[in-house]
Design a protein that fits this description.
Layout (H helix, E strand, L loop, with lengths): L1 H21 L6 H8 L3 H13 L3 E6 L9 E5 L5 E7 L4 E7 L4 E7 L7 H17 L7 E8 L2 E2 L6 E3 L11 H4 L6 E5 H12 L4 E6 L3 E7 L2 E2 L32 H4 L1 H4 L6 H9 L3 H24 L4 E4 L8 H14 L9 E3 L6 H17 L1
Parallel strand pairs: 3-6, 6-9, 10-13, 13-14
Antiparallel strand pairs: 1-2, 3-4, 4-5, 7-8, 10-11, 11-12
Length: 372
Amino acid sequence: MKTKTMQSIQRSNYSNIYHLLMSNDKLSKQMIADELGLSLPTVTGNLNQLIDQELIMKNGQLESKIGRRATAYSVNPNAFLSIGIEVFQKYATITVINLKHEVLAIHTVNIPFANNEQYATALADQVRWLLQNNGYNEKSILGAGIGIQGLIDGAGTTVLWGKILGCTGMRADLFSQFLPFPVRFYHDADCVAAAEYAVEPNDEIVLSIGEHFGSAIITDGKILRSTKGRDGTMEHISINPRNGRPCYCGRRGCIETYCSLSSLLQPTETLNSFFTNLKQHNPAVEQRFSEYLDYLAESIYNLHMFIDVPIIIGGRLSKFITASILEDLRGRLKSISVFPESEQYVKVGHVADNAVAIGAAIPFIDDKLKSI
């Protein structure tokens, strides 16, 4: 029993020292000892062990007004890496992140999506090219997460329903057979939520507003997921089930059909051209955007009535939400609010570009950090 207790203490010291360094830029031995209440020999022994395993490194010296300058220690953020991939109908975006969730590389490649080995081989080849081109060792890769427009089983192994891409039934091992590390699937909106939470960790509803509309719920610091993959799929809540716009899911009036970018933009428009015309006060564009904000406000308010947490506007749209547009949206919410609101619960997200690819890589990193 005493041996197990001692091993537990040693393991705890090792973990606490590593995570303290993870949350700081540089620390000396004495700083670590003071912060954790440990002896210098204990700190030294654990630092040596962490250095031997290449999890941390000596990083220069700290400034000192008196005496010798102390050696500084930092984590080695690139000790392990993770890959995130977002697949679209006509292209895929691949990203590499490190233990600090820093994006090290991004690669977009034109590969038409298909649920077959030819596509899986082509995508795996691009992943390998990105790693080799940047000098990353495949042995340092923890895994690859693939963000999918569809419902994913709890284990991340199977697409349960993927109507947009036509990928229902696709399995992660279709890709892992061509790569020397694990592959998991994630619902694309969950990926956006993971990317946002990594920047600012709060319980919240995250809206992923891109070509399609998606949503995810973060509660108690975790993204709500079930074995059926339906948690947070609020895009298919109908706000006009009888006479509303037809949705790809087969129903009418879903939030998707009023609040996605597909519902806002005309076929020849891009987000850039739309918001350029909006700034130039094009009357038709202003009217269309006003109607869009009305629908978005109604949808956000309905979600707010279910769960009273901040609601984050994430995805591609977030890049174009200015302070004045946010205040306009908040004003519309206030005008339809039944209950008094003491706080502005709608905010703009931080990760506008490649959020799905970034978020798909994060779970492998977080799992590794929890194991240290």
